[in-house]
Amino acid sequence: MRIAIQGELGSFSHEAALTMVPKGIVAPCRTAADVLRELDCSEVEAAVVPVENSLAGSVIDFYDLFFEHEFVIERELQMRIRHNLIAAPGTRLETVRHVLSHPVALAQCKEFFAAHPRFKATSFYDTAGSVQHVMREQKSELAAIASRQAAVEYGGEILLAGIEDHAESFTRFWLIRRRGSVPTEAAPSKLSLVFSLENRPGALLEALGVFAARQLNLTKIESRPITGKPWEYMFYADVTLPPSADPDAVIEMLQKICPVVKELGRYSASNYASN
Fold it and tell me: pTM of the full predicted structure?
């Protein structure tokens, strides 16, 4: 199975893809739009996309595109994010002066930089890409912050492991496929959907009442502006499904009060995975 990811090989999305589909062939893409376009055009059979980090919040690049594309969530994965200081083999920690990584990764290692004031944090477009750059340059003053998979992929050496500020950093990934290519799960425990609302008082309360009336736990709700319609919004929601729940009934009721309702997938909620 060919699986599209955003970012270079060795990224956290690469690790997630190998965890979810161990024998998959990973196809790196530069942008979120490229990932979903590859899936739309059948260049790949699936994609693994990050949708939320427990510290940084939602991955907006993907949320803003989800409504425009036809896909179904097959599975989810919650993966522990461990940041590592990686350099060219033979580099000594005391020679490092510049540390490259994606801005989010740098922000999650503030305590590390406070403890090593001689290191200058430098933004780079991708965590794995920063390791690729360091290995290409082969300079003793350069290092990068990235995943263990990035060190394996490009032959880097981990100087320090687990340098993130918080051990509670997890990223939630979805394995998505084209609509119609995923068999219906017999006992899903989670439902993801997107809906719009009429511009009137109480509209959101009425929509949320659909979940409350059925005692369904709304674990996430995210509003995003609708392109081309100023001050109008789509609402993305994740809902847990007890064995007695009827997802079709939930969607049918929402359709009676919401102008647009789109199911993104019904699937099993994941356990945490350590990388």
Answer: 0.89
